Amino acid sequence: MKDYIEERAIEIANYIIEEKATVRQTAKKFGVSKSTVHKDVTGRLIQINPALASEARKVLDINKSERHIRGGLATREKYLHQKSHF
Question: How far apart are CA 27 and CA 15, in angstroms?
Answer without folding.
Answer: 11
